[in-house]
């Protein structure tokens, strides 16, 4: 298990052209999580959620502020990362893809990987190449890879967004089972509120510009189904917060209020 | 009048492949086969060569050329006694191959790291772009003449010239390969903390394999051509020197014979080494397609 502390994280990207301003993806994001918890970061597209995950994983560095990921004991945490796309080496088999991220390539490691492949329902596919698998199966390989490194912190960046609805639903249910068994610290990024409610026990809402907006606890028993009435109630509550966020944004920026008014007038 | 279509379900276990399943006439199959195309082009080349030789006394026929190569093999090298290893054909060829292999090793040691670094870091690309352009633009014969003037006869001139003329081409190919390494796979490797040596073996080299092999092919041809050229201009041994020797004594068979030998070396290396490596590194593609198509899903 891991402890993640982010303090006033700012991330700016250089302007795409000379005459454009710098792009600020995160604007002073504060965040803390630890223990056996499944935290979802929810927000509109482009609010800096994936950028934050990239900073946590070390792919990006923050422009200012700090991000610290340690174990409960204080040593550097080991990370697992499930990306939006599976990111598998096309020239390596499923087993070789999972071995690639393991420091030791022993028979024990193979047996350990095999356990996670069994867990995601891919027994018998370990010697196949990614091109032999469907999109959903490739994503399951990505999930098995992330769990198999026994991460202290597991990062998941909209892992089901590229899948069809049926496969995504099935994988969400499977993920709950895997997480319940492994009890990792998980940071999950999504823009799908229903998905966040179904999976997580805490939801952070990030608003445009990369700032915290709300922090909500979801105390519902697992496993959860999207059709559960409690899940629907929690989803409605969070969607209400999203509306409030939009209202506040419109108040702060008169141009957005004007746009909203003109679109309403057109509809009328 | 309406058409009547009778549909019949295939028998259990029968496989319907459509028009592809029609059996072709064996003669048609032979005529359209890949092997037939390759061998017919080779035979045509020899026939044209023979006809050209029959029409002009200055154009040696295949038989005359082959007979010269046998004579060259039977001629003892220098003042020593004849042996399988000590004859004009083997010794001169071995000297040239030794020079070309040395040059190729140096080309790879310089070209691969520079090309990779140019693709990875834009500052290094900015630094080397003009230097590489100069290297590509300067013709091999200029390097050959300069090499002979600077280093004289011996080992250094051909190796130097081969290195300077083959390296820029390899750098450009490796640069293209380096740019083609998928960014998302590099990020994934970084996020999981995969050691660099593992990234080289499992990500960087396989991603660059196509470009690397194309670069090696170019570098081998350039290095071999340059070694022979320098030996022609200023050397006292090697394949190029021997071709020049027979040219100076107006022996057309000798010139053509050494031309054929030089060509055979290039073809042998390409087919026997480069193509095999190419097949080995791209074997995974064959495994994917042999599974049942270019991209087959089982889910």
Structure description:
The complex is a heterodimer of chains A (268) and B (299). Chain A is built from 8 helices and 9 strands. With 268 residues, chain A is an alpha/beta fold. In chain A, helix 2 runs parallel beside helix 4 (135-148), helix 3 crosses helix 4 (135-148) and helix 7 crosses helix 8 (254-267). The radius of gyration of chain A is 20 Å and the shape is globular. Chain B is mainly α and 299 residues long. In chain B, 75% of the residues lie in helices and 0% in strands. The radius of gyration of chain B is 26 Å and the shape is globular. The model of chain B is unreliable at 1-20 and 293-299 (pLDDT under 50). The interface between A and B is medium-sized, with 30 and 24 residues.
SSE inventory with pairings:
The complex is a heterodimer of chains A (268) and B (299).
Chain A: E1 2-13, E2 23-34, E3 38-42, H1 49-57, E4 64-71, E5 79-82, H2 94-100, H3 107-119, H4 135-148, E6 153-157, H5 165-182, E7 185-190, H6 193-199, E8 202-207, E9 211-217, H7 229-252, H8 254-267
Parallel strand pairs in A: 3-7, 3-8, 5-6, 6-7
Antiparallel strand pairs in A: 1-2, 1-4, 8-9
Helix pairs in contact in A: 2-4, 3-4, 6-7, 7-8
Chain B: H1 26-32, H2 34-55, H3 62-74, H4 88-120, H5 122-137, H6 140-151, H7 156-179, H8 183-191, H9 196-234, H10 239-248, H11 252-281, H12 283-290
Helix pairs in contact in B: 3-11, 4-5, 4-7, 4-9, 4-10, 5-7, 6-7, 6-9, 7-9, 9-10, 9-11, 10-11
Characteristics:
heterodimer, A: 268 residues, alpha/beta, 6-stranded mixed β-sheet, 3-stranded antiparallel β-sheet, 24% strand, globular, B: 299 residues, mainly alpha, 12 helices, 75% helix, 0% strand, disordered N terminus
């Amino acid at each position: 298990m891991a402890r993640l502390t982010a303090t006033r994280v700012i991330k700016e990207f250089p302007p795409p052209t000379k005459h454009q301003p710098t792009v600020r993806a995160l604007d002073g994001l504060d965040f803390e999580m630890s223990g056996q918890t499944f935290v979802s970061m929810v927000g509109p597209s482009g609010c800096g959620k994936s950028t934050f995950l990239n900073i946590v994983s070390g792919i990006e560095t923050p422009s200012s502020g700090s991000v610290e990921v340690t174990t409960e004991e204080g040593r550097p945490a080991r990370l697992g990362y499930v990306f939006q796309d599976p990111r598998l080496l096309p020239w390596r088999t499923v087993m070789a893809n999972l071995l690639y991220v393991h420091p030791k390539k022993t028979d024990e490691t193979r047996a350990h990987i095999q356990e996670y492949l069994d867990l995601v329902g891919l027994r018998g596919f370990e010697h196949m190449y990614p091109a032999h698998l469907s999109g959903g199966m490739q994503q399951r390989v990505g999930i098995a890879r992330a769990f198999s490194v026994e991460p202290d912190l597991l990062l998941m960046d909209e892992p089901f967004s590229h899948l069809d609805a049926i496969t995504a639903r099935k994988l969400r249910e499977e993920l709950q089972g895997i997480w319940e068994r492994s009890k990792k610290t998980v940071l999950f990024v999504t823009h799908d509120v229903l998905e966040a409610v179904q999976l997580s026990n805490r939801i952070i809402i990030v608003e445009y510009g990369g700032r915290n907006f709300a922090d909500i606890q979801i105390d519902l028993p697992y496993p959860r189904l999207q059709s559960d009435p409690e899940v629907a109630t929690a989803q409605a509550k969070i969607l209400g917060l999203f509306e409030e966020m939009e209202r506040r944004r419109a108040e702060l920026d008169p141009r957005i209020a004007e746009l909203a008014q003109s679109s309403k007038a057109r509809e009328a | 009048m309406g058409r009547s279509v009778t549909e019949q379900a295939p028998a259990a276990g029968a496989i319907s492949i459509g028009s592809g399943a029609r059996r072709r006439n064996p003669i048609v199959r032979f005529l359209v086969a890949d092997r037939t195309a390759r061998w017919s082009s080779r035979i045509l080349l020899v026939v044209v060569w023979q006809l050209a030789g029959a029409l002009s006394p200055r154009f040696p026929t295949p038989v005359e050329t082959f007979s010269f190569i046998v004579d060259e093999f039977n001629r003892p090298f220098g003042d020593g006694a004849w042996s399988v290893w000590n004859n004009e054909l083997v010794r001169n060829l071995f000297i040239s191959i030794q020079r070309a292999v040395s040059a190729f090793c140096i080309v790879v040691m310089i070209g691969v790291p520079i090309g990779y670094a140019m693709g990875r870091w834009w500052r290094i690309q900015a630094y080397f772009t003009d230097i590489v352009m100069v290297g590509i633009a300067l013709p091999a014969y200029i390097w050959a003449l300069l090499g002979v003037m600077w280093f004289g006869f011996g080992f250094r001139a051909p190796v130097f010239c081969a290195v300077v003329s083959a390296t820029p081409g390899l750098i450009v190919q490796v640069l293209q390969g380096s740019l083609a390494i998928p960014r998302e796979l590099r990020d994934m490797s970084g996020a999981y903390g995969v050691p660099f040596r593992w990234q080289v073996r499992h990500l960087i080299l396989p991603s660059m394999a196509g470009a690397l092999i194309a670069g090696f092919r170019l570098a081998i041809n350039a290095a071999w051509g340059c070694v022979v050229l320098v030996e022609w201009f200023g050397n006292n041994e090697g394949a190029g020197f021997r071709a020049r020797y027979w040219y100076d004594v107006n022996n057309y068979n000798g010139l053509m014979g050494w031309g054929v030998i030089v060509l055979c070396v290039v073809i042998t290396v390409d087919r026997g080494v480069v193509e095999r490596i190419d097949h080995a590194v791209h074997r995974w593609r064959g495994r994917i397609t042999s599974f049942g198509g270019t991209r087959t899903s089982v889910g």
